[in-house]
Hints:
One of its GO terms (molecular function) is cysteine-type endopeptidase activity. The protein contains seven helices and eleven strands.
Amino acid sequence: xxxxxxxxxxxxxxxxxxxxxxxxxxxxxxxxxxxxxxxxxxxxxxxxxxxxxxxxxxxxxxxxxxxxxxxxxxxxxxxxxxxxxxxxxxxxxxxxxxxxxxxxxxxxxxxxxxxxxxxxxxxxxxxxxxxxxxxxxxxxxxxxxxxxxxxxxxxxxxxxxxxxxxxxxxxxxxxxxxxxxxxxxxxxxxxxxxxxxxxxxxxxxxxxxxxxxxxxxxxxxxxxxxxxxxxxxxxxxxxxxxxxxxxxxxxxxxxxxxxxxxxxxxxxxxxxxxxxxxxxxxxxxxxxxxxxxxxxxxxxxxxxxxxxxxxxxxxxxxxxx
Length: 321
């Protein structure tokens, strides 16, 4: 499940920097943004989304190192790790109680544009009509790219068939990043469907360790599908899943809301809810902020010559949020 979470996030970063239509081609020179994305996921403690960082951050979610994660735990871990990732600058929203709150997302994603130092300054551009009068977004034209994750329980021991059509509709949305889930004892990253079968990528393959070469390039072949994606019946899906969506701009989120209202909320038994205002019985929404302690300690080493003084497995401490 850790690897599946990495896959979904990596797809979001590809959409963020290279566009949804970008495709990888073997042995072709790739954009520098692509190489930088790969470096976020290398299996080293000093990489933002490494398996080390994800496992350690899971301790704060009540999961010991080596304990199995569920889709919701991975979503919470990604939300915390993203606070330390200034380059990608993602807003990660994980829905609560099967409910997505538009007001909270707008509050989290609307940021002051570069150069706006005071609240009294006039924004350089007018807001889209869709955001007029919607709380914080009405005074803030800059949108922070959104990774929206919706953890769901679609049944007790197996998926309830009433949710199947709505679940499939989510893959059709242009903002879709697929879904985290699987079947008992196996986690998969679902990327689409064909009829009543889900198409998935399987992370259960041992790969050779990959690191950055002297040139700064990452040997990326094992980061991509070396075999065709597999399929499984949707009825075999474990009911615990997490849907992922990426909205680079505010108009993408507004379009997603329209599609959800049209395709998801029409069902009698809704897969999840989409509401405009923050529920009054919930605690106040506070956008997640980067903690004051933000370092793993690695950057205090001036050069690699000093690394011999440290046992890399024991002396580098990865701090939880």
